[in-house]
C-alpha cells in the first residue's frame, strides 16, 4: 500500500486524541472505584482499559488512511498493549506508568547502538522531515539519545515519588512539550548543518 498524505488536523487527532481522551477520562473517573467481577478497580485502571482499544483503533485508522506506520509507532503500540494489559490484568497501575520509561530507554538504546556503529538511525526515520548534512545528523542523534534517556529518568522519578494525578499531567503534557521544546532549541544546529533546497537539487542532479 502506498503512503498517502492526510489532513494534518486529522493526523494530529488520530495521534493525540487518544492521549487527551485518557487525560479527560482520568480527571472524570479518578476518584471513583468500580467493582467488576467481584474485584474493585480504581478509575485509573478503568481508564487504562478503555485507552488501549481506543489507541489501537486510532492507529488502525491512521494506517488505513496513510498506508504507513513508523517503527516507533508499532513499538509504542506493543508496549501499550503489554504494560497497559498487565496493569488491568493485575490491577496494578505501576506497569502502565513504567511504559514511557521503557519506550524512551528502547529508543535511546537503539540510537546508541547506531552511533556505536557510526550510523544515525534517527536519519533513517526523520530524513524526509529535516534535511541535514551527515555531521548534523550525528550531532542531532547524540542529543536525541540523551533526551530519551533524560525523559526515561524523569518518568521514573515522577511516577515513583509523586501522585498519580501529577504523573498523568506529566505524561499528557510534560513529555510532549519537552520533546517540542528540545527541537525548538535545535535551531542553531539546523542552521549550521541544514541542506538548502538548491543543494538537494544539485545532489539529485549529480
Structure commentary:
This protein has helices at 8-29, 43-66, 71-90, 94-116, 121-126, 134-161, 164-184, 187-193, 197-205, and strands spanning 33-36, 39-42. The protein is mostly helical and 206 residues long. The two termini are 30 Å apart. The chain has a two-stranded antiparallel ribbon with strand order 1-2. Strand 1 and strand 2 form a beta hairpin. The protein contains nine helices and two strands; from the N terminus they run H-E-E-H-H-H-H-H-H-H-H. The protein folds into two domains: 1-92; 93-206, no CATH class. It is found in: Cell inner membrane. It is a multi-pass membrane protein. Belongs to the YciB family. It comes from Thalassococcus lentus. Plays a role in cell envelope biogenesis, maintenance of cell envelope integrity and membrane homeostasis.
Q: Compute the number of strand runs.
A: 2
Largest sheet: 2 strands, antiparallel
Q: Alpha-carbon distance between the termini?
A: 30 Å
Helix content: over 70%
Q: Which class do the helix and strand fractions yield?
A: mainly alpha
Poorly predicted sequence stretches spanning 5 or more consecutive residues = none
Structural domain count: 2
CA gyration radius, whole angstroms: 19 Å
Residues in β-strands, percent: under 5%
Give the helices and strands as they follow along the chain: HEEHHHHHHHH
Look at the structure and give the mean pLDDT. Answer: 89
How are the strands of the largest sheet arranged?
A: 1-2
Helical stretch tally: 9
**Silhouette:** globular
Subcellular location: Cell inner membrane
Protein name: Inner membrane-spanning protein YciB
Function: Plays a role in cell envelope biogenesis, maintenance of cell envelope integrity and membrane homeostasis.
Keywords: Cell inner membrane, Cell membrane, Membrane, Transmembrane, Transmembrane helix
Amino acid at each position: 500500500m502506498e503512503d498517502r498524505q492526510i489532513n494534518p488536523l486529522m493526523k494530529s487527532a488520530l495521534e493525540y486524541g487518544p492521549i487527551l481522551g485518557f487525560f479527560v477520562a482520568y480527571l472524570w473517573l479518578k476518584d471513583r472505584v468500580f467493582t467488576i467481577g467481584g474485584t474493585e478497580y480504581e478509575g485509573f485502571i478503568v481508564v487504562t482499559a478503555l485507552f488501549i482499544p481506543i489507541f489501537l483503533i486510532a492507529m488502525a485508522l491512521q494506517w488505513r488512511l496513510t498506508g504507513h506506520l513508523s517503527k516507533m509507532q508499532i513499538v509504542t503500540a506493543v508496549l501499550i498493549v503489554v504494560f497497559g494489559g498487565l496493569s488491568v490484568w493485575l490491577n496494578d497501575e505501576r506497569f502502565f506508568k513504567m511504559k514511557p520509561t521503557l519506550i524512551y530507554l528502547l529508543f535511546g538504546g537503539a540510537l546508541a547502538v547506531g552511533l556505536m556503529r557510526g550510523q544515525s538511525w534517527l536519519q533513517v526515520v526523520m530524513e524526509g522531515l529535516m534535511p541535514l548534512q551527515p555531521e548534523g545528523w550525528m550531532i542531532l542523534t547524540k542529543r536525541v539519545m540523551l533526551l530519551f534517556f533524560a525523559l526515561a529518568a524523569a518518568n521514573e522519578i515522577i511516577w515513583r515519588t509523586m501522585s498519580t494525578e501529577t504523573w498523568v499531567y506529566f505524561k499528557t503534557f510534560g513529555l510532549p512539550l519537552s520533546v517540542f521544546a528540545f527541537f525548538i532549541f535545535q535551531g542553531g544546529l539546523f542552521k549550521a548543518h541544514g541542506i538548502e533546497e538548491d543543494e538537494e537539487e544539485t545532489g539529485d542532479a549529480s
